[in-house]
Amino acid sequence: MRAEALGFDIGVAAEAYGSDVFTPLAAIAACTRRIRLGTAIMQVSARTPACAAMTAITLDHISNGRLCLGIGVSGPQVVEGWYGQPFRRPLERTHEWLAIFRAIVAREEPVSFDGQQYQLPYRGPGGLGLGKPLMSIVHPLRRHIPVFLGAEGPGNVELAAREFDGWFPLLLPPERFDLFESALQQARPGFEILPSLSVNVQDDLAAALLPVKRNLALYIGGMGARRKTSTSASSSVRVSRTRHRRSRICGSPGGRRTPCLPCPTNWLMRSRSWGPGTTCEPSWPAGGNPRRRRCSSAWRRASRRRWATWNSSRPCVMSEGTTRYPEFRAAGLLQMASMATGLADFGPETFRAGLERLLDSVNGLRLTDLGVLRARNAVLGNLAARLGVWDHRKRHPQLAEEEIRSPIFVIGLPRTGTTLLFGLLAQDPDHRAPLLWETSMPCPPPEAAGYETDPRIALVTESLKQVDGLNPKVLAVHPIGARLPQECIGIFSMEFLSYIFYCGLPIRGYNDWLDEQDVSSAYRWHRLFLQHLQSRHRRKRWVLKAPSHMAFMGHLFETYPDALIINTHRSPVTAVASHASLHWHLWEQSLGRFDPKEVGPQTADMLERWLRRFVAWRNAHPGHEARIADVVYADLVSDPIGTVHSIYRRFGLPVTPVFEQRMRAFLAENRQDRHGTHHYLPDEFGLEEQALRERFRFYVERFDVHDHDR
């Protein structure tokens, strides 16, 4: 669950001659929703192709299409000593095994196969001759379950490239891919390479080395064969067959080099050779890369600790300040989201222009490892959510009839009390506010009965702790929590027309582009998403919030003609400086260091555009004034419950005793200084106070806003 929350792509289980590989994956499937489940490696000799296909089809159903089957032939010591089968013609056996497995999973016709290693039906010695071709009585969830090969001889790698979906190299340094350049020439587009990497988090180098050496000793002494097994780096190297040699490796006093096996020198620092993120560009010799390949591995999580690993001379320490340009590509991220969910239909194509523009802007930034992880997870999370929501809508078209009645929208400049007011209104038993956990993981739609105990709440909470760290500086500016109401920009992000991306990254190019777009599709998706969430948990009305609605009021009322608007007001001087502070804290998390004086002017430009559009809209639509309640920030902060009473009187709504009691409890639990005090001054962010007053005079005079709320 923690690995999934951290954004890992795949979790794998192994088997040798102990625990089986599928039972733990079934347990993992039961408590996760997104992460792919792999076998690394399932022993071919342990199961006939039909047995493996039955197991894979079942687990694929249980996991909703997340299985990636990694197979291998093991070695003669295990195959003959444990499984009691002859170790013969492994390449031929692997080829035939895969052909039968594919035919069973495809389920196009009864399966028959006449090979040297396998026959279906069986026609060999001792048979009764009564077998007949059969077809699985269970319909597979997918007609193609990805299968990867875990083997490193040149013939095996050629077989993997030609017939498999991916390859598991073992103990292979990235710069030695020249060994398999010709073998991988035949790999198809989308071929995955999932390298193994031993990582142990320790400050004590000797303690960190010990489990790595034990693992190597198992392969050399416990599974190697003198005349049959060779290493990936040199087919001429023979390994010891004695347990005495195994114990010597484990017990060697300094042993920075491991006998017979090539030492994976400085693995973590050299992991750059695999390429950033999940798209891998291996180090190929002169002649170039024959094909770009996706590479997923367990070491992709950005390190914020000291990683002790081993090389030829010294431990490796990965710098927290390491930065890099990401290389996100829309096609690869779309494919990853599809593979993670087992779904392929993203719905209307309107989201693609925003996705491409966003990735172009992000790829131009130099991000920390944490920044790359957060950017990647943000995109993948939104793509996966979109896939799930659209798939659910296709299977339940009646959701289009769900009514959204008189939703309440809280709008206003950022940092004007919108979050406080939003949280208070969400306490009304008649109201439904989209919470962070359900907008992050919307499928299946939340059930009313389990709404307060849904396991997704814990998953999102853990994700916030591990990835974002619930940074106290950020929390002092803007509260974050799985159970707290989420802004509409979190919903718009699935259409990739959202200011939420600019909140976390200084992607001004994307932000300026967004200001000029027709966002009708974002509001259509917004309505569809609310219908999705309320389909199994309804209340009288939605309460929603986003300052950016001010720039698109025409689209809002076109989508929700009976909407009610609460408009908060505060001195723009204070609001701009406060919002610049929030941007700066978030941007520094992803870039490591960012000049605060560059933040203020960008923030002021954005907010001025919003306000000018909003003032123009209000002046042009006086008929909507009855549906708008204006709230002064100072009044809200000094008497929040009294302010809510005033709003409800304007809209003709009752404040029930239960609602008032809940508001008081909310205020006690979410007091303003709970995570510290937020201090800021305009000049810290490159802003001059008097210039800001002149710049926003049009807004101050229109709504009679004063500076006394500071």
General description of the model:
- The radius of gyration is 29 Å and the shape is elongated.
- α7 (205-222) packs antiparallel against α8 (243-251) and α11 (352-363) runs antiparallel to α19.
- The chain has 28 helices and 18 strands.
- Helix content is 43%, strand content 8%.
- The two termini are 43 Å apart.
- β5 (113-114) and β6 (119-120) form a beta hairpin.
- The longest helix has 27 residues, at 369-395.
- Strands 1, 2, 3, 4, 7, 8, 9, 10 and 11 form a nine-stranded mixed β-sheet that branches. The protein has a five-stranded parallel β-sheet with strand order 15-16-14-17-18.
- The chain is of the alpha/beta class and 710 residues long.
Strand content: 5-15%
- In helices, the fraction of residues equals 40-55%
Computed over alpha carbons, the radius of gyration is 29 Å
Structural category is alpha/beta
Uncertain spans: 229-321
Number of helices, counting only DSSP H or I runs of 4 residues or more: 28
Helix and strand arrangement:
Elements: H1 2-6, E1 10-13, H2 22-31, E2 36-39, E3 42-43, H3 49-62, E4 67-72, H4 76-81, H5 90-106, E5 113-114, E6 119-120, E7 147-149, H6 154-163, E8 166-167, E9 192-193, H7 205-222, H8 243-251, H9 267-270, E10 279-280, E11 293-295, E12 323-324, H10 330-341, H11 352-363, E13 367-368, H12 369-395, E14 408-412, H13 418-425, E15 431-432, H14 436-440, H15 455-468, H16 472-477, H17 489-492, H18 500-504, H19 508-515, H20 520-534, E16 541-545, H21 553-559, E17 564-569, H22 572-591, H23 599-620, E18 628-632, H24 633-638, H25 640-651, H26 657-669, H27 689-695, H28 697-703
Parallel strand pairs: 1-2, 2-4, 3-4, 4-7, 7-8, 8-9, 9-11, 14-16, 14-17, 15-16, 17-18
Antiparallel strand pairs: 5-6, 10-11, 12-13
Helix pairs in contact: 3-5, 7-8, 10-12, 11-19, 22-23
